[in-house]
Amino acid sequence: MFYREAGDFKTSYPEDGQTFPIKLDRFGFFAVLFIGFAVIPFVINDYWVNSVFLPFLIYAIAAIGLNILVGYCGQVSLGTGGFMAVGAYACYKFMTGLDIWIGGVQYALPPINIFLSVILAGLVTAFVGVLFGLPSLRIKGFYLAVATLAAQFFLVWLFNKWAWAYNYSASGQISAPERSIFGMNVTGANADPWVAYLFCLVFLAGLAFMARNLTRGSMGRKWMAIRDMDIAAEIIGVDPLKAKLSAFAVSSFFIGISGALFFSVYLGAVEVGEVFGINKSFLVLFMVIIGGLGSIFGAFAGAAFLVLLPVFLKNTLVGGLGWPTDLAAHLEFMIVGGLIITFLVLEPHGLAQLWRIIKEKLRLWPFPH
Amino acid sequence: MKMKLATLALGAALAAGPALAELTFPSLSYRTGPYAANGIPFADGYADYFTLLNERDGGIGGEKINLIECETGYNTEKGVECYEATKGSGALLYQPLSTGITYQLIPKATADGIPVHSMGYGRTSAKNGKVFSHIFNYPVNYWDGASVGIKHLLDLNDGDLSGKKVALVYHNSAYGKEPIRTLEELAKKHGYELTLLAVDHPGQEQKSQWLQIRRERPDYVLMWGWGVMNQVAIQEAVNIRFPMENFIGIWWSGSENDVKPAGAGADGYKALAFHNVGSDFPIFDDLKTHVVDKGLAAGAGDQLGTVLYNRGLYAAMLAAEAAKTAQEIHDTSNITAAMMRDGMESLEITEEKMATLGMPNFGPEFTVTCENHGGDGLGAVTQWDANAEKWTLITDFVQSDQDVLQPLIEEDSAAYAAENDIEERCN
């Protein structure tokens, strides 16, 4: 009833192999894109952007990035917070003008456009990610998780210690100065909410498109071969070095961009230990696991679940029911934790799998076999 | 996607803000998380003072006060959410009680025209009102604290610290790093040797730092700690038998919560303060009659008279006085955030004022001006008596070394102004 597939015939391979082969899904996707780009910017205010949409969009980018590494390539990483920090600090250096000292002489680049700064920050993070991905060639599973955990602690320590990274500010904080695109402020306090929202949405849409197509192509199939059985993959001609390192690079690129946006557009001022600590690594990993490993939709669902649910609960319990804030905060932990366990017990493959099952049912409804 | 939209729609229905009241004061509190032990008494004191004004005087200038509490958990992301959620409700003033959140709010609140009062924390150079139009940090800041601490050490050593070793144990964050510049400048001036020991959030593991202190034997240890870090540091100091009277914490490291776990060993530990301690003030009788006995006390109601409760009380008192000043200046009882800012900028705290409020000699006298948003930098030293289980003020309020601090403040605020294209005001 919901899906009317009668008459929806495919006459060519590209048609059959497209991302949304079912017509209704395709329309749904374009409708969501339309709402995201052309409706939401006109109706949102500061609160919705800063408390709901920006964190959701940015965490979704990070979750897609981590999903490529963990979900598609099977390399467990706990270094997400550290890599986000690389993105944030790289973006800060690029947007304030990168300075390098060689032999006592300072060479400084002029401040780079914010859009390019974010992309460059992603590239720098990709490079750092490859470096920390090197151990994956020898170790896997829990051992690799520990190695990436070391990256997490090392990077946070580095950005706390290395005064150059925060332009020698007294407090060690980095704050994003005002930067604009087409004359409209994207960062800083005077940025219009819809501009910040669209800026992040463009990145998310672009990166999600890229991720989806990478994972469908030969590169994604190599990653999945490595994930499913690395020895077998090597025998059929997949180079583990290239596959693993490319997964680390692409994943870190995404995570670096999310870190850059997290700092420049969302928070505006960042302190590495507090914002990019180990908690962030776990949060993004939980998003990937709850959403569903190896699914782009899962990354969205996981990010939505972990970003929106606390805000929703807080508004319900404190704003709606008028409970004391501390009681609500404790309950929030319990409810979110309880729901995570419930969801994973009911469907170990995450929200994406849940959605897949529902969709199968809907396609047959009301006449199941 | 569809699930996401459904969630959003449900959220939209429930995200409507609280009802508008006449004078709205948001309280970004933290009653949960690793810093809750210190966040609770402050939030209680802050809330109780406003409850007292509502119950006893019918609000400020006849306008009832609406206190909106929002839980931040000392987390900057939640702090931003709280700010965005409450700013639309006519919020007059933000006191985030977190240096990290203050840094977030400096540009945001300035753009929105809402004043921020970071009392004894936040960005020190916000003292320069010429650059920071909406940020206030009276009566003291961290650099004053560092200087007052060193002055106390000078007093103990007949004015000569040369050759002495001073160690700083600090929370490895924006907050803990604040005093380093000042202590380095003061080290140049007074000739002591400074050792820096960073402790990472949340500070439960400090064995290596205290091992180093045991090895290097500094003459004095200063501490910039918060939350559980304080308790651990004091316990570690007791464990290595460091003489407690040579261990001085900043005002955020000097509450009952911090010293009690160490028991008798913490006796003699010192902490800086910018307001008086104890419950020996007439206002506490009023609080008992109008708030506690009516069952209106915030939280569990068991924090009255503790150091951080008094600080919350003091913060609320300064906010209420600024609101009164604003009402006088603009000749209206229903003030806006912009008027509140004007009130804060012409705030004058005198001994008579504090005495009429039932808080005689509670804090230093100071005047806020357009140029100076930070007061005169008066601080005192308190000491813990483990047997009597109470803090006592052991020095008068002394002024920090303005010769050293003023240039630093000028320099840091000028850098901020240049970074953000801010033109100096007050000319």
- Could you estimate the helical fraction of the residues of chain B in percent? 40-55%
For the secondary structure, the number of strands of chain A is 6
Distance between the termini of chain B: 55 Å
Q: Characterize the overall form of chain B.
A: globular
Spatial extent as radius of gyration of chain A: 22 Å
For the biggest sheet of chain B, the summary is:
8 strands, mixed
Which whole number gives the mean pLDDT of chain B? 89
Domain count of chain A: 2
Unreliable stretches of chain A (pLDDT < 50, length at least 5) are none
- N to C succession of SSEs of chain A: HHHHEEHHEEEHHHHEHHHHH
Q: Please, how many helices of chain A?
A: 15
Largest sheet features of chain A: 2 strands, antiparallel
Categorize the overall geometry of chain A.
globular
Whole-number mean pLDDT of chain A? 90
The number of E-state strands of chain B comes to: 14
Q: Report the sheet-strand fraction of chain A.
A: under 5%
End-to-end C-alpha gap of chain A: 15 Å
Quaternary state of the chains: heterodimer
Could you describe the 3D structure shown?
Chain A: GO terms for molecular function: branched-chain amino acid transmembrane transporter activity. Chain A: InterPro entries: ABC_transp_permease, LivM-like. The complex is a heterodimer of chains A (369) and B (427). By secondary structure, chain A is mainly α. Chain A has two domains: 1-9 and 19-43, no CATH class; 44-277, no CATH class. Chain A has helices at 13-16, 23-43, 46-72, 80-96, 114-133, 142-161, 193-216, 218-228, 230-235, 240-267, 272-275, 278-291, 296-320, 325-346, 350-364, and strands spanning 99-102, 105-108, 174-175, 180-181, 184-185, 269-270. In chain A, the strands form three sheets. Chain A has a two-stranded antiparallel sheet. In chain A, helix 3 packs across helix 12 and helix 8 crosses helix 10. The longest helix of chain A has 28 residues, at 240-267. Chain B folds into two domains: 20-140 and 278-376, Response regulator (Rossmann fold, 3-Layer(aba) Sandwich); 142-273 and 380-406, Rossmann fold. Chain B is globular, with a radius of gyration of 21 Å. In chain B, helix 10 (256-259) links the parallel strand 8 (247-249) and strand 9. By secondary structure, chain B is an alpha/beta fold. In chain B, strands 5, 6, 7, 8, 9, 12, 13 and 14 form an eight-stranded mixed beta sheet that branches. Chain B is 44% helix and 15% strand. The interface between A and B is large, with 54 and 61 residues.
